[in-house]
Amino acid sequence: MTTAMAPPLENLYRDVPIFVLSTGTSLRGFDFTRLDGRVTLGINRIVEHYQPTMLHFIDTSAKETHARALRAYNGTIIAGPGAAPLDTHESAYEINPHNIPPPRRVDTAEALRNLWRRRKHVPRNFDEELFGSGAGCTGLHLAILLGGNPIYLLGYDFYQDNGTHFDEYDPTRNDPDVYGYSADCIAQLSREPWLPAIYNCNPRSRLTCFPFADIDTVLAASVVAPSRQAALVGGNR
């Protein structure tokens, strides 16, 4: 099994639109099959509902919490140190170029608080770790290094709306500002002058560092040419 980022993944999707799917409540009711035929990067529990082209997580317990969905997943997994299911998926990679010992098991909240929180430098290739605190930021950085252009963010909310995730409903959870440290990391990333075009598809998002793009308009104009589709999105069902 591959245990480090393989060089062919760098700029694999150069100048191809990538849709990065986070888990905010703005995706509640969204029909993910509308993204079929496009390059998609799903974060965390997206795999419970859709098979994206690529899947990303940094939580080392995801192999257990999403075990059933991962067994059925036939795309590419690109995860943080100690998080990739290398024993069960041949198309699984860990971004761990310095062979950092796998961390002890941590939950998502702890990963959000601690993972790379003190990092200031934003790497421009896979020779270093992904930038940011939380899979939303590391996932965006991953899409950038994969060469995506433009990049469209879906479910990047950073607020609660009767729950924190699109696949739950909890009327006790309506915090208008959650995961602020992760949003701060993305804001720092957004200031890099070498980035591709990045758009946020949620007009209510607390992440205001990227311009808004209406998802209906984007999907109407971003169909991947059939001649390239098989090579680029073979993992989609």
What does this structure look like?
This protein is an alpha/beta fold and 237 residues long. Helices cover 22% and strands 11% of the residues. The protein is built from 7 helices and 7 strands; from the N terminus they run E-E-E-H-H-E-E-H-H-E-H-E-H-H. The protein has helices at residues 62-65, 67-72, 108-114, 135-145, 180-190, 215-221, 226-232; strands at 18-21, 39-43, 54-57, 76-79, 92-94, 151-154, 198-200. The longest helix is centred in the middle third of the chain and has 11 residues, at 135-145.
Give the overall average pLDDT. Answer: 85
What oligomeric state do the depicted chains represent?
single chain
β-strand number: 7
Query: What is the straight-line distance between the termini?
Result: 24 Å
Shape: globular
Helical stretch tally: 7
**Widest sheet: strand order?**
5-4-3-2-1-6-7
**Residue fraction in strands:** 5-15%
Structural class per helix/strand content? Answer: alpha/beta
Major β-sheet annotation: 7 strands, parallel
Radius of gyration: 16 Å
- Helix content estimate: 10-25%
